[in-house]
Design brief:
Number of helices of chain A: 10
Number of domains of chain A: 2
CATH superfamily of the largest domain in chain A: v583 domain like
CATH architecture of the largest domain in chain A: Alpha-Beta Complex
Strand order of the largest sheet of chain A: 3-2-1-4
CATH topology of the largest domain in chain A: v583 fold
Radius of gyration of chain A: 20 Å
Structural class of chain A: alpha+beta
Largest sheet of chain A: 4 strands, antiparallel
Number of strands of chain A: 13
Distance between the termini of chain A: 38 Å
Oligomer: homodimer
Chain lengths: ~325, ~325
C-alpha cells in the first residue's frame, strides 16, 4: 500500500467555482488488489472547510494548498517514487498514535520522508520552506492519508457474497451509515449520534453537530478507537483514561474477525490491532464499534470545536444483518 | 532549558589532530540556574567513534559533521533564537520514547523544528538537503541533546551539603562511577558490569565490552530506564517485555526523591517520571538504578554491537553513603 505521486487531481465538483479549478488529493494505491483510494489534504484544526468553516482565510489556505503545497508534495513523491504506508503506520502505532485523532508521530514520520525528498527535487526553496512550516505545524497532517489508506485496504474486501464484514462507516451530521461486503453498495442508515467529548475553550455539547465525517473508515481498518491501546496520551484530546484506551481495544476484539498482523500494539505485548468488523458479532454481542472523532459546530462557518469518543449506532447493524439474511435466503432459494 | 545556537565549539583535545580543528557540540543552557552543558553530535548506530570505531568512513563522517552539519544547525538555531527542550522532551515521552535508547519521536520532533528554520536561514540548499538526509536517517539523533539536557538539569543540583542526591553516573568500559551532591567532585567507582542485552546479528555477550559511556546521565534525570513505562516498544531494542518496562519505572520510585512534573507518563495515568536518585535509598532498599544502554565491542574499531538493560553497581552507592556520613560527621564536629 503506497502513496503515489499526486499528478491527477480529484476535481471536487461543488468547490470548482469557489476555490480553484481543482483540489489536490492523496492517491493511495493498493498494489496487491489493484485498487486506489483518495483523500483531500488535511487543513489543520479549528476553522477548516471540512468542519464547515468557509471564511476568507479558510479559502485562501485551500488556494495555497492547490498552488504551492500540491506541486511540492508531487515533486517529493516523484523523487521517492511513491511511499510505502504500512511500515510508516506500523511505526506510528509504536509511537503513541492511533492514526485517527492522534497523528503526531505519523505526521512527523511523513515530514521526515517528504522534506529530504522535496529538497532533492526541483521544487523552489521558498515553496519548500512554506510547505515545511505548514506540515510541521499540523499534528493531524497524516489523518487524510490514513483515511485513504484505510479505504484502499477495505475496498479490496468488497463483493464477498454472504459475508457480514463491514467495509465502510460514514456520517454526515444527520445520518450514520454502514456498508457490508455481502450487500454491495447499499447503505444502512440511522440518525447520527451526538458526541460526548472534550470541547475547545468556549464551546460545549450544546454547540455540537451530531457525529460527522468519513474518517471513521480508519476504525474499520483497525485504527482509531480500535487501536487506542497504542495511544494512551490521546485521552487528553478525546477524554477518558489510559485504562479506557486499553479497554476499548480489548473490547473491539469481540466484534472483529481477526487481527492485523502488520499493525501491532506494544502495550498489549505486540498483538495485532483488532480488525475486520463483523456486523453479526455486533448484533450478537450488543457491542458497537468505538470511534474517536472530531466534533464540528452545528452552525456553518465555525469549524471544529472539540473531539471525543462515540459509538456506531446499533440500528445500522441490525438492518444490515437482516438485509444480508434476505440476500442469502434469496440466493439459497436460487 | 534551551538549546542554544552552537557558535562556540567545544575543542576536544585528543581529536584535534585526527578529525578537525574542532568538533561541534550542542550547548544546553539552564536559564533558571545559569549553567550550561555540552555534548557532541550523534553519529548514528553501528560503526561510530563513540563506540570505538575509527575507520576512514567514520572519520569522514566526523569531518562532514564539522564542516556541513554544524553550520546548518547553527543557522537553524540562530533562526529559532534557541529551542526550548523540556516541552519537546515531554512530548516525546507521550510518543513512546524514553529519550535514552529510544529517541525516534524526539529526533523526529527536533527535525520538524530545525528543518523549517534551516530553510528560512541563509544556509545553502544542498547543505540543508544533506543534513536533512542525515538527521532523518538517524532515530538516535536526539540522544546527545538529551544527555546535555540531563547534565544541565543535574549540574544545577551540585554542592548541597549533606545531601545524598546522585548528580552523575558514568562508565568507561572498565569502571562505573557516581557522584553525590554532598561529596563535591569526588567519584565513587567500582568495576563496570557486563550488559545482558539484545545483540546485533553476528555478535554475542562474548564480544561485549563492559558497560561504557556517559549517557546514563539521562537515567538520573528520570529518563531512560526510569521512563521505560513511556516506551513499551523499546523492549524490541533492549530486551524484556512491556510489563518489565512498566515495572522498571515503578521500581525506581523506591530510590528517587520525587517525580518530574514536567515529564509525565501516559501509561501510568500521567504521573511524573521518578527523578532524583537518593544514594541512601539505594543502599536501604537494595534496589540499584536501572539503565538502558548501548553495548560496544570489546575490541576497538568495530563500534556498537547491541543494546540492553543493566544496573548501576551497589558498591558505588555504599562507598558514597559512607563518605557522605564521614563528611557530615566532620562538619558536625566542626
Amino acid at each position: 500500500m503506497a502513496l503515489e505521486p499526486c499528478h491527477d487531481h480529484g476535481v471536487v465538483g461543488p468547490m470548482a467555482g469557489i476555490v480553484s479549478p481543482s483540489m489536490p488529493v492523496w492517491i493511495v494505491a493498493n498494489a496487491a488488489h489493484g485498487n486506489r483510494a483518495y483523500s483531500n489534504l488535511n487543513e489543520g484544526l479549528g476553522k477548516v472547510l471540512r468542519f464547515g468553516a468557509n471564511s476568507p482565510d479558510v479559502l485562501d489556505r485551500l488556494r495555497w494548498m492547490g498552488t504551492v503545497l500540491q506541486p511540492v508534495l508531487a515533486a517529493a513523491l516523484d523523487e521517492l517514487g511513491g511511499l510505502e504506508l504500512k511500515p510508516l503506520m506500523a511505526q506510528a502505532l509504536h509511537m503513541g498514535d492511533e492514526i485517527h485523532n492522534r497523528n503526531a508521530a505519523a505526521s512527523s514520520l511523513l515530514f521526515r520522508r517528504l522534506l529530504p525528498a522535496a529538497l532533492r527535487s526541483g521544487a523552489a526553496r521558498e515553496d519548500i520552506a512554506a510547505c515545511a512550516d505548514f506540515i510541521a505545524g499540523n499534528d493531524h497532517f497524516f489523518l487524510n492519508v490514513s483515511m485513504a489508506a484505510s479505504k484502499a485496504m477495505l475496498d479490496a474486501a468488497t463483493g464477498v457474497a454472504g459475508s457480514s464484514l463491514v467495509t465502510a462507516m460514514a456520517r454526515n451530521g444527520v445520518e450514520f451509515g454502514i456498508r457490508l461486503t455481502g450487500c454491495g453498495d447499499r447503505w444502512f442508515t440511522t440518525a447520527a449520534p451526538v458526541v460526548d467529548g472534550l470541547y475547545f475553550a468556549g464551546y460545549s455539547v450544546a454547540d455540537a453537530a451530531p457525529d460527522l465525517g468519513d474518517s471513521c473508515i480508519t476504525e474499520i481498518a483497525g485504527l482509531g478507537g480500535f487501536a487506542m491501546a497504542a495511544a494512551p496520551a490521546i485521552v487528553q484530546f478525546v477524554g477518558g483514561t489510559p485504562d479506557d484506551a486499553l479497554a476499548s481495544t480489548n473490547e473491539m476484539t469481540h466484534i472483529t474477525l481477526g487481527r492485523n498482523a502488520a499493525f501491532t500494539l506494544p502495550p498489549l505485548d505486540f498483538v495485532g490491532t483488532p480488525a475486520g468488523i463483523d456486523a453479526r458479532r455486533v448484533v450478537d454481542t450488543g457491542i458497537t464499534p468505538v470511534i474517536n472523532t472530531g466534533i464540528a459546530h452545528r452552525e456553518p462557518g465555525i469549524g471544529q470545536i472539540g473531539a471525543g469518543i462515540t459509538r456506531a449506532p446499533m440500528a445500522c447493524f441490525t438492518q444490515a444483518v437482516a438485509a444480508l439474511a434476505t440476500n442469502v435466503a434469496r440466493t439459497a432459494a436460487g
